[in-house]
Amino acid sequence: MLENDRRDPFEDRLGAALRDAGDGFEADRAALVTAGRVRGRRALLRRRTAVVGGVAGVALAGVGGALVLPADDQAAPARSTAASAGTPNGEATAAAAVFTGDDLLRELKGLLPRGTYGEESGRGSDHQLGPAAHLVYDDGAGAAAIGMGFARVEPGSAQARQLAACPDHNGTPYADCTSDRLPDGSTLRLYQGYEYPDLRVDTKLWTADLVTAEGQHVSVSEWNSPAEKGAPVSRDEPPLSTERLRTLVTAGVWREVVDAIPKKPKPSRSTAPRPELPEVSGESVGDTLAALLPGKLDVVARGGQEFEYAYVIVDDGKGRSLVQVNVQYGMADGAGQVYAGGEILPDGTRLVTRQEPGEKAGSGVVMWTVDTLRPGPEGFRVVISAFNTGDQNKDATRDAPVLSMEQLRGIALSEQWDALR
């Protein structure tokens, strides 16, 4: 059963807890309101809340405070509250939860199977880099790093869709990946891959990403090593199965953590809005690339991303070759540095060529590139690269890419790209 499907013990025990607390309990309302308003006293408020209890373990706060009940098997973690002093007519507003790094670590430990912990670190919901938690967990089979991150994304945006999509095998080799839509409209991606795409080290990386319909993003990452990089493998696989990852990432408390992240202030009306750059459809990029290839080539696979990037894997009978294209707007700012030493064509197009080792660690792989920038304020850039292998993560399968530098130049400068502007 998922965490957010469990019955809330608050509902079951509220009446009994209040009766047990009795008339002998009297909250210091002024102290609690002050503690909520002053960040420097949040730790003091948490200590007081944890101590107060009686038989039922109840802490009743006054205006802007909170009611804290212990869990069935352990004391529930106390959380800070940022309480408002009230509205102009004197009515108090609801308190907003504030999670500290310690809160996140405590919640994470409570959702993990029994084990030992080390190298703990956490950032609270009000940290400028966003909330996060990290620890080294050992269930008896070897130490493993586990990390969590939290953020907001625009619902339905390209970023939200990307977080829910499994990566392309050609760019990111992995063992397994699933993406499902949950009954509440959230999307959940469960991924089992590797820290190093070229597999030069046997460090495995398993992740879970939850994106809710409201734009809450919760991510969990785990490794079969006590560190993401630079530490020896300590076990065959990360400690949490895909089902345990699912249960962990969908726990209801994490959505509260995202909700507690301070929202960025809206820009001043006097500030002119920055124009949004258009995004080129990845499907259109792939179709244009395929149409510009020499007819003698056999396209054995193709793919890409939702925007800007596409690739084909072609074979001329002498081995497979990867050809990829990026088509982007807004690239004029760095033109002086990127295109230094290159050509400036009569129509103002800037062009530079590169022949260099591949981007990844496949042995003997070379990457031939023609990089172009059309004239104009929109900074329209077309970059095409070809490799002497069908997979950058694997060794070269031929001496040179299937397309010559002259052919790459012709494709990059084709007027057909202008249809995407």
Count every helix, treating DSSP H or I runs of 4 or more residues as helices.
10
The poorly predicted ranges are 1-78, 82-95
Q: Could you estimate the helical fraction of the residues in percent?
A: 10-25%
CATH architecture of the largest domain: 3-Layer(aba) Sandwich
Measured by DSSP, the beta-strand proportion falls in 25-35%
Characterize the main sheet: 7 strands, antiparallel
Per DSSP E runs of 2 or more residues, the count of β-strands stands at 18
Task: Estimate the mean pLDDT confidence.
Answer: 79
Strand/helix succession:
HHHEEEEHEEEHEEEEHHHEEEHEEEEH
Describe this structure as you would to a colleague.
By secondary structure, the chain is of the alpha+beta class. It folds into three domains: 3-98, no CATH class; 101-259, Protein Transport Mog1p, Chain A, CATH 3.40.1000; 282-420, Protein Transport Mog1p, Chain A, CATH 3.40.1000. It is built from ten helices and 18 strands. It has helices spanning 9-21, 29-37, 42-51, 101-111, 158-164, 242-249, 252-259, 282-292, 335-338, 405-412; strands at 59-60, 67-68, 80-82, 96-98, 116-123, 132-138, 143-152, 176-181, 187-194, 204-211, 216-223, 298-304, 309-315, 320-328, 343-344, 350-357, 366-373, 381-387. The strands form four sheets. The chain has a seven-stranded antiparallel sheet. A seven-stranded antiparallel sheet has the order 12-13-14-18-17-16-15, covered by helices on one side. It has a two-stranded antiparallel sheet with strand order 1-2. The longest helix has 13 residues, at 9-21. It is globular. The relative contact order is 0.08. The model is unreliable at 1-78 and 82-95 (pLDDT under 50).
